[in-house]
Amino acid sequence: MYNLAQKTLAEFLGTFALLFVSAGSLCAAQQAGARGPGPLALAFAPGLVLAAMLVALGPISGGHFNPAVTAAFWVTRRQGTLEAMLFWAAQLAGAAAGCYLVSLFFLSDVWRSARLGLPALSSDVSPVFGMLVEAALTFFLVLVYFAAAGGKETAGAKLAPLAIGFTLTANILVGGALTGAAMNPARAFGPALVGNYWANQMVYWVGPLAGGILAGSLFSLLLARKPAAQV
User: Given this model, what pLDDT does residue 23 score?
Assistant: First the structure.
């Protein structure tokens, strides 16, 4: 049984790793130019590190690493208020720390050009449409969290890290060109805090939180396993 301090630390470290790899891979691509990793590799980088952190730290905290996931667990009463608030604080702090470390690894010109991997709206995507895109992407991500990892008795629980990581990667391939496919308020908060880039933050808070809460609520109401009827 893990205590609350251990769970909170696990959320900090997992989000730290996710932002370090997400922002770092984009900065590395910026520095390498044409010789750098392509869009497929950049989509796989966050998915792979998320899967790895779910294996390493998921047994401790549940492996949210995302305020939208925590919000969904809280709204569906799978998590208490105090724990949820501590998770949110740890996730935002971990995101900022991960981005700050990236800013130390790369020259200022490089990470500022890449904006530390800050998700951004395409020129033809409005903030409202961006919220809808982020909500849809996060809906599918959180649905997989609930279906694969939300119940430890399910057969899919053992494959949850891969399922969640692959879903993140697939969503980036679909929505990356539109919104940057953050699916995670911490993913936008970390680069914004370190680099002072605050444009369109509302898109990356409202969209993922709405999509995550909808997915968690829908799964809990309609898809979760019900106790066997007594006869």
Answer: 96
